[in-house]
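User: Design a sequence. Structure:
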């Protein structure tokens, strides 16, 4: 069994394999990471991009920490239910 992941852009279909070893960062069409404020983001050269957004929902002392992905691409969301 191989260690790693495959990340696929739902907009253009580009796939990126993340496996142990040295990265060719400048050649990657899909990039991901965490910014200086701790928010995760992922983007593809086709323009598809997501950014993590988190906040507390509810009343004081009874709130829930909610984390969502925010679309930064400016495109309409793709409606895919079983095609991931």
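Assistant: Done.
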């Amino acid at each position: 069994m191989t260690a790693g992941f495959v990340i696929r852009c739902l907009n253009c279909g580009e796939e990126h394999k993340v496996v142990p070893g040295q990265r060719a960062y400048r050649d990657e069409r899909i990039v991901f990471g965490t910014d200086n404020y701790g928010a995760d983001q992922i983007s593809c050269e086709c323009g598809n991009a997501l950014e993590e957004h988190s906040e507390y929902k509810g009343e004081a002392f009874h709130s829930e920490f909610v984390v969502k992905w925010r679309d930064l691409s400016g495109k309409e969301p793709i409606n895919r239910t079983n095609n991931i």
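The CA atoms of residues 18 and 51 lie 19 Å apart. The two ends are 21 Å apart (CA to CA).
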